[in-house]
Amino acid sequence: MAELSASNLEAIKTLPIKDELTLFCTKSKSKYFNSHASFEEAIDQVLRDKSSSNGKDLVLDLILALQNSLVTRPFIGDLFRLGSQVTSNTVNLEIFAALLKSVFIDTEDTEIWAAFIYLITQTRPAPQPRTPPPSLPSFVSSVQQTPWSFNTSQFANTSEFREH
Q1: Residue 119 near residue 98 (C-beta atoms within 8 A)
Q2: Fewer CB atoms inside 10 A, N or C side of the chain?
Q3: Is 17 exposed, middle or buried (0-12, 13-18, 19+ CB in 10 A)?
Q4: Helix (H, G, I), strand (E, B) or coil at 2
């Protein structure tokens, strides 16, 4: 999980995420999970089951709930990227397990935020190397210089003279 700084912990107190995900939890519990299984086991099972789309649907529902949350607005670009990765099957759904478990199991906001930030940092693409900007024109080449004079008369055969 991501380590949270003191300033992050203070911000979390003013931005509780747990309450905003209550509706997601209520709807998802009845839709995706059996009542007799523990949430930790059930989440792992749903995410690993490749024969159904339940894992993908659960993760997309979570992403949509996070996109609709006011407290996660600074991460909206990351959430759209995650949604795109899930729909195009370019991300392993099991990476969402820690966040889902912290949301469904009654945990504190700090643990949910830590799992969320960890997920974001783990799924961000590596920065692409950038091509350096074009060089400025060289000072020497921009200075007007006296052109070199090249005379080919010295190569002429001196035994031949031109008559006018």
Answers
A1: yes
A2: C
A3: buried
A4: coil
* Better pLDDT: 33 or 99: 99
State whether residue 46 is helix, strand or coil. Answer: helix
d(CA 64, CA 59): 9
Query: Exposure string (b/e) for 134-164, b if CB count within 10 Å is 16 or more?
Result: eeeeeeeeeeeeeeeeeeeeeeeeeeeeeee
Q: So what's the pLDDT on residue 42?
A: 87
CA angle (16 as vertex; 47, 32 as ends), nearest 5: 25
How far apart are alpha carbons 122 and 120 in whole angstroms? 6
pLDDT digits (tens, 9 = 90+) for 78-107: 999 999 999 999 989 999 999 999 999 878
pTM, rounded to two decimals: 0.71
Q: What SS3 class is residue 80? A: helix
- Cα–Cα distance, 51 to 72 (Å, whole number): 32
What's phi and psi for 59, nearest 5 deg?
-65, -45
